[in-house]
Amino acid sequence: MRLRRDRRAPEYLENDERVILNPQDFKGNWKENFGNDHPIHVEFGCGKGGFITELAIRNPNINYIAAERAETVVYKACKKANDKEDIPDNLRFLYFDVNNCKDIFEKGEVERIYLNFSDPWPKKRHAYKRLTNRGFLEKYEYILAEKGEIHFKTDNKGLFAYSIEEFSAMKWVMKNVTLDLHNSDMEDNIMTEYEKKFSEMGYTINRLEAYK
Amino acid sequence: MRLRRDRRAPEYLENDERVILNPQDFKGNWKENFGNDHPIHVEFGCGKGGFITELAIRNPNINYIAAERAETVVYKACKKANDKEDIPDNLRFLYFDVNNCKDIFEKGEVERIYLNFSDPWPKKRHAYKRLTNRGFLEKYEYILAEKGEIHFKTDNKGLFAYSIEEFSAMKWVMKNVTLDLHNSDMEDNIMTEYEKKFSEMGYTINRLEAYK
Questions:
Q1: At A13, which helix (H) or strand (E)?
Q2: CA of B7: how far to CAs of A107, B11, B74, B146, in Å?
Q3: Rounded CA gap, A92 and A81, in Å?
Q4: Which residues contact A103 (CB under 8 A, 6 or more apart)?
Q5: Is residue B16 flagged as an active site residue?
Q6: CB neighbours of A83 closer than 8 A, spacing ≥ 6?
Q7: Of B37, B46, B94, B184, whose CB neighbour count within 10 A is largest?
Q8: B13-31 pLDDT, tens per residue?
Q9: Cα R_g (chain A), whole angstroms
Q10: Is the pLDDT of residue B8 over 90?
């Protein structure tokens, strides 16, 4: 998601407790940051943040970390989360490049990774930038706990097909695969802002879960 | 494909050289049946036979075996193939239950298996009948040569999603995956009769190749 830079972002981000400006300092110590032993679920590319904020409200016994690369996106997502009255203290926002996720998380520190409507980077020469590229999958494998899972959804047929190839080539097992999420068995799907908009326009949503 | 039984079928099938009534007698000896050393490609569920007949015409250096369970379907497909003027002697028709494929082919005897628009058997209790069920995949693995491949296409989203799960669980590698075959890079796609009809109705076609 591209947004115009917001001048209010830096000050807000510096002063909000949900925002972690120095995430690498918590590598291996995220449970201390949250003050409990609950499992850690991460969303790489949280966009407007509606998905992970709703998860945090529904599941107070899970710790959520939402990541985006762009400062302004994090600012908007965090502000929106803070506007909710009922949100517990189990949600953090970070901004960093997913390429550096091993600098932020220790081996096996994360129980689940959400990838929602990631940038499809449709040109072949940009394939390495897709968040399901095998280079990323290796990093995810490192930070994920045993039996940790990736939950991935996208409306983009090309990205979904590519991702199946990458998961398969890297010997991940895929389960709960659907090519039409909104007409599937899944009952507790939380729609992202993007998902609401594009499914209303008639796009079908693809989804899968993968583990090593 | 269900067809009314055709009374002419038995006599035709008995007298046509393309039809092999005793396929189990050729187990391990298909190359002798064809009289050459060319690779053997099989279609399980050939329906009206247009796909494999066109392949046989295009690729005289490959031996093709088309299988269907129902006598009448084989009869129609075979008759249609014989009506073509330019068809070489590299195509055989059999009727047998794919469950019994290990009675027909020796270990490693087949280079490629085509599964086109297989019955989706949408009810969960019928999942074991789907031709990409893991029970079938184990049999395919047995009859396929090293580096042998399954080429699978379907318009049915549920069957495609299920098949990805099954291939993945059984550690097959999937490649050339597409969720929209007719808008993909694949240039030499041969459409089946079913595919022509349903893609004209607006259904997108899913396709993948898998190997162990």
A1: helix A9-15
A2: 68, 8, 13, 42
A3: 10
A4: A24, A27, A96
A5: no
A6: none
A7: B46
A8: 888 889 999 999 999 999 9
A9: 16
A10: no
In this complex, which of A161, A174, A204 lies closest to B168 when CB atoms are compared? A174
Whole-number pLDDT of residue B3: 61
**Residues of B in Cβ contact (< 8 Å) with A158:** 179
Q: What residue spans define the domains of chain B?
A: 9-211
Query: Residue B66's pLDDT is what?
Result: 97
- Specify the DSSP class assigned to residue B83: T
Mention every residue, 6+ apart, whose C-beta is less than 8 A from residue B158. Answer: A179, B120, B122
| Helix-strand-coil split of chain B, %, nearest 5 | 40, 20, 40
**pLDDT at res. A5:** 77
Q: Shortest Cα distance from B63 to chain A (angstroms)?
A: 29
Q: pLDDT tens digits, residue range B59-115? A: 999 999 999 988 888 999 999 999 988 888 999 999 889 999 999 999 999 999 999
Q: Give the amino acid at A109.
A: E
Q: Nearest CA to CA, how far is B117 from chain A (Å)?
A: 16
Q: How many helices (H) and strands (E) does chain A have?
A: 8, 7
Tell me the whole-structure pTM to 2 decimals: 0.93
With tokens 């002697």, the residue in question is B89
Percent share of chain B, pLDDT over 70: 99
Q: Which CATH number fits domain B9-211: 3.40.50.150, 1.10.443.10, 3.20.20.30, 3.40.640.10?
A: 3.40.50.150
pLDDT tens digits, residue range B129-174?
A: 999 999 999 999 999 999 999 999 999 999 999 999 999 999 999 9
pLDDT of A1 over the 60 cut: no
| Residue B153 neighbours by CB under 8 Å, 6+ apart | B115, B116, B117, B181, B195, B205, B206, B207, B208
Tell me the Ramachandran region of residue B28: left when phi exceeds 0, alpha when psi lies from -120 to 50, beta otherwise.
Answer: left
CA angle, B99 then B103 then B108, to 5°: 100
